[in-house]
Structure formats: C-alpha cells, structure tokens
Amino acid sequence: MDDTRDAEQRRIAEHVEWQKQGAWVVLWGVHTRVYWAFACWPVIPEEGVVISARDPDELYSGMRQVEREHGYLRWRHRRRR
Predict the structure, then answer these.
(1) Closest by CA position to 62, among listed 73, 49, 76, 47
(2) How many angstroms separate the CA atoms of 1 and 30, rounded?
(3) Greater confidence, 15 or 75?
(4) pLDDT of residue 43
C-alpha cells in the first residue's frame, strides 16, 4: 500500500471538506480507493445523503448536484432577518 498516495488523497478530502465549510464530512477510503462525502445539513432526506467518487472533481460535482436537489443552497443563502 502506498502511504504517500493515501496521505495526499486524505489532504484532498480535507480540503474539499474545508471548502464546503462544515456542510459535508469528506473522507478518503483507503480500502475502497474512493472519496466519500456525507451531508450534514438540516434539509436532507431523513435517510441521509452519501456521495462517493474516485475523483475529487467528480465528488465535488456530485455534492453540488445533491445540494441543488435538496434545497441546501436556498437554505444556506436565505436572507437573515
């Protein structure tokens, strides 16, 4: 197993999670060799949302698609009174 490669993939997962400002938990699966993202915002279906992808760009795109489908962006950016 290439620990150097896994370390880089973990850093990428941490960066994506940081970009999403706590809206997702993002992990690199050492055994599965894919990225995993778990939505952690209040406007998701009761059963939750989990995205997986082999590529970080694909993961990020999937996360954005799910955010649109479930109204996260409307909730996140609504006007505060």
Answers:
(1) 49
(2) 9
(3) 15
(4) 73
CA dist 74 and 56 (Å) reads 24
Residue 58 domain-assigned (yes or no): yes
Q: Are 37 and 43 in contact (CB under 8 A)?
A: no
Model-level pTM?
Answer: 0.82
Domain count, the chain: 1
- By residue range, what is the domain housing residue 26? 3-76
Strands in 32-77 per DSSP E:
34-39, 50-53
- pLDDT tens column, 1-44: 557 779 999 999 999 999 988 899 999 999 999 999 999 987 77
CA distances from 67 to 14, 32, 70, 81 (A): 19, 24, 5, 23
